[in-house]
Amino acid sequence: MEAADQLIEDIYDAVTFPERWGGVLERLCALTDATHGFLFTAAPRHDSLTAALWARHNITDRQLADYTTHFRHRDVWANAAAARGLLNRCAVRRGEELVPDAVLRRSAFFNELLRDHGMGRLCALTLSDGDELSSVQPVLSLHRPPDASPFPDETVRLLQDCAPHLQRAMRLRVRLLAGRDGREEARWSGRAIDRLPMGVALLDAAGRVAGLNRAGQAMIDGRDGLRLVQGRLQAEQGGEARRLAHLLEAAVSSGGKGASARRGDAADLRVSRPSGRAPYLLSVLPLSPEAAGPFDDADGGGGGARIRAMVYIVDPAAVAPGLGRRLGALFGLTAVEAGLVADLLADLTPAEVGERRGVAISTVRSQLRSVFAKTGTTRQSELMNLVNRCLMLPEEP
Asked: What is the reported pLDDT for 308?
């Protein structure tokens, strides 16, 4: 149960930290004895929306390039799924159910790509929802060597259980990039990161802060656990300072390397605050070569330092502006239901919420059941994970 809970948490992390899709695949592979994991889109177009849903585990840069350049349209599994209409709905299928083993092994797809990389058994989950995801047609596939046993029923059930969470996370990711309110897509620029309610620090190849957004600067100016010393981000307390310095050095050194050279990607750390407020939550992320690029400042000058890593800093006690509006837009929550979620984010229990509002605990529980239904969650911890992550959308300019 703990492993499944962590997997679901990782899935919702990927809404705002897309670098963590690789970690989702790695965890799924560990749970299913798969050797490779691949998340891709079967849609014929390739743009920012589809690119945001591509990730891999134990698949090399060369293998990915070979697939996208030479074999994407010769993928006998994907072609069979398309012919049966599976790419347009949510379904789990094993490779043997899509293409007979003998047919697979005669194909160029198997002999010129899969076999050389130790792949031949498949369990795939198509994630189209008949609505928002139909245009991107996401597919998650797990692989084993050709001489391994087929994936068991337990793997099928696990993917079926994960499907609603994966779809919800992908829909939120697509909404973020598509800008449903008419805004432009988020760009790699000072303007984009400056609108985030979390702190964001951009590190150059030397580990110095090349860019710091408005929320991050406010945290530094507050002198409450974090500081900048000679351009380097530091924690104030000794043990945490050493741990953060180590994580930043590791992220910068791996940030320019290929995906196969990195393990684990994100690293997390709590940083205590002398004021006694809830500790800052930091995620240190090395950037892949395709994500790393020169930093454009808020004036769009360009030509800045090349960014090798990012540090996300979350203040758990801070409530993002426009909370009720966002919850209403994303999940259809009423003002009362959005207020309940805000109270829960502030660590109030349902009983304390009822006491504060002067209503019976049964009323609060009824409202909470409605929130669960609208967000597709079943437990308060799952709801908090979802809300915390999707509220990291950019603020209004």
From this structure: 86
